[in-house]
Design a protein that fits this description.
mainly beta, elongated, 11-stranded mixed beta sheet, Type 1 dockerin domain, 3 helices
Length: about 475
Amino acid sequence: GLGPFDGVAPGTYQAVYTVSDGCGNSSTCAIGITVSDAKPPAMYCINGLVVELMPADTNGDGFFDTGMIEIWASDFDAGSYDNCSADVAISFSPDTSFTSMTLGCDSLGQILLEIWGTDASGNQDFCQTYVIVQDNNGACVPTPPSIAGAIHDEMGAPVADVAVGINGGMVAFDTTGADGTYLFPAVPPASDYTVTPYKNHDIHNGVSTLDALLIRKHLLGLEPLGSPLKMIAADVNNSKSLSISDMIAIRRVVLWEADTFPYNTAWRFVDAGYQFQHPQNPLWENWPEVYNINNLLAPMMDVDFTAIKVGDVNNTAAPNPLVASEDRTEGLMPVRLVPVVEGGRVVVRVFAEAKAPLQALQLTLDLGAAATRLAAVRPGLLADLDESHFGWRHLGEGLLTMSYETVEQIVPDGQPLFELVFEGEAPVSAAVTSALTPALAWTADGTGWQLVQENAASQDVTVAAWPNPA
């Protein structure tokens, strides 16, 4: 016939045409015809579906710990069909294998969905609908939020052994490790909290005579400390101002005359996100040393603080066990102890062979049994040196500490720096050590030097009572 031909299934066919004229002549030809399905399925979705999460035990401990439900794409089909294919494959995406999905407690509420249909020829189309996920069975156990953070010093190094406490909806404590972090998991929500860091031990860490010198230079306008955190470190007595009292407090710690700073702790802290309003004088401000959280509803994982080692204005403190305290010395500076006899007493003169003018000096002298005979200290090149520059607290153990600084330039020219006077003419056994106060000196260019006693490998020399040739 001449057609049309309806309902022809997809495939390849041969059509034969015959042409005839009135005289009975005819001719035929054949052509190939391919029939294909290019029309996508007609997609129809139901108008939404409500599902309930069911209790589930995900860790196999025999207790329900969450809620779950499995849904199928075919659940949302409202009679989709295709013009050629008897069956339409229903899925949640063009991937025909994506026929089901599992919903959990993180899916609560309304979720928009696409329902895709694919016919036998691969033609696709989709319709849109939604699913509302409910937890009327109480299967979802809310995970309490956490509070966490990290504590670093001004140089960015993590600070260990900081006791961090929270109080409010609960009271708890944690201690930072070598990585400087702390964590409070499972904190009761919908409460207010205050996070407070605290550290008040290892007071000598990073504190030296050089710090007192740098504070003096700042006070005189010679070398500003340069950062708000260094100025907070310099306010050793927590008076909200810098003065010579802070230098004296540092000296007492260096000399081991004091184990604490007056009215202050060994470490202070500031909210890491705080911007100082008066960076040239931060001591005017009440900077936040705690972090307040109001109505905690979500995890707070970046409650960070910057740690400040009080008394350490040049960042030499060791922040954690993996980092050693920095003396920052460039070499050795020989020290000589030279005894003479003056009027029935032994005078031990202390010399230093410095390559540049001195501005700061500290050390420990081990006097042994002769410590009980120490009668006085006398200045030499250190003209304003007096007994306040020495630590007498451990003299009963034979140890005398010393700390001195000045903005003047002391040029060792063969004269003693200072002298020790002992009663009697019996020999004096003395040694320069770092038993308490490390034996260090600093020249005017800021270079640090390790003091070593000359001409005695044991660092312990016995000085006999020789008459003073002068």
